[in-house]
């Protein structure tokens, strides 16, 4: 169970730093990542579960980037395709003024799509790019 914060400040978007491919991504509006595992009830005699079968772990994620960040990434991508960038890690660090810092590491990432999303009336161009992720290391508190 989490201890209450003395100053009342929680982790928030303003406390996040996202690092990948040798730099800090500042043109990010959203990052999403999850690990899920197949857990299925198994049945024997009767109508209630006899036990559970534990299956594979799957990782999913996406990152929403401003067009300017996409242009910079395409400049380093072979043939300008995000999918041609080899495996890389993304480190997402949540930092409350250095007092309660925790980092999650998305390992063996690849961009799945190279796209642009925009529509009439948009004041900026932001694209949600799916990620193929090979592992996620959810961090613990560090100072």
List the helices and strands and how they pair.
Blueprint lengths: L15 E5 L2 E3 L2 E16 L5 E18 H10 L11 E9 L3 E12 L14 E7 L2 E3 L3 E2 L1
Structure description:
The chain has one helix at residues 67-76; strands spanning 16-20, 23-25, 28-43, 49-66, 88-96, 100-111, 126-132, 135-137, 141-142. It has 143 residues and is mainly beta. It has a single domain, classed as Pnp Oxidase, Chain A (Roll). Strand 1 (16-20) and strand 2 (23-25) form a beta hairpin. It starts with 15 loop residues before the first strand and ends with a strand. The mean pLDDT is 91.
Q: What is the CATH topology descriptor?
A: Pnp Oxidase, Chain A
Major beta-sheet overview: 9 strands, antiparallel
Uncertain parts: none
Specify the CATH architecture.
Roll
Structural class: mainly beta
Q: Note the gap between the termini.
A: 19 Å
Number of strands: 9
The CATH first-level class comes to Mainly Beta
Cα radius of gyration in angstroms: 19 Å
The overall pLDDT, averaged over residues, is: 91
The shape, in one word, is: globular
Can you tell me the number of structural domains?
1
Q: Please indicate the percent range of residues in DSSP E strands (runs of 2 or more).
A: over 45%
Q: Work out the helix count.
A: 1
Tell me the helix content: under 10%
Topology pattern, helix = H, strand = E: EEEEHEEEEE
Outline of this structure?
The protein has a single domain, classed as Pnp Oxidase, Chain A (Roll).
């Amino acid at each position: 169970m989490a201890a209450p914060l003395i100053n009342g400040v929680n982790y928030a978007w303003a406390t996040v730093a996202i690092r990948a491919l040798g730099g800090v991504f500042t043109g990010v509006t959203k990052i999403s990542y999850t690990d899920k595992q197949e857990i299925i009830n198994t049945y024997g005699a009767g109508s209630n579960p006899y036990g559970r079968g534990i299956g594979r772990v799957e990782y999913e994620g996406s990152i929403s980037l401003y067009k300017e960040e996409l242009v910079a990434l395409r400049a380093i991508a072979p043939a300008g395709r995000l999918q041609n960038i080899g495996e890389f890690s993304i480190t997402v660090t949540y930092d409350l003024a250095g007092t309660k810092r925790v980092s999650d590491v998305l390992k063996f990432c690849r961009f799945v799509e190279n796209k642009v999303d925009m529509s009439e009336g948009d004041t900026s161009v932001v694209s949600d790019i799916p990620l193929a992720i090979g592992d996620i290391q959810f961090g613990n508190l560090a100072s």
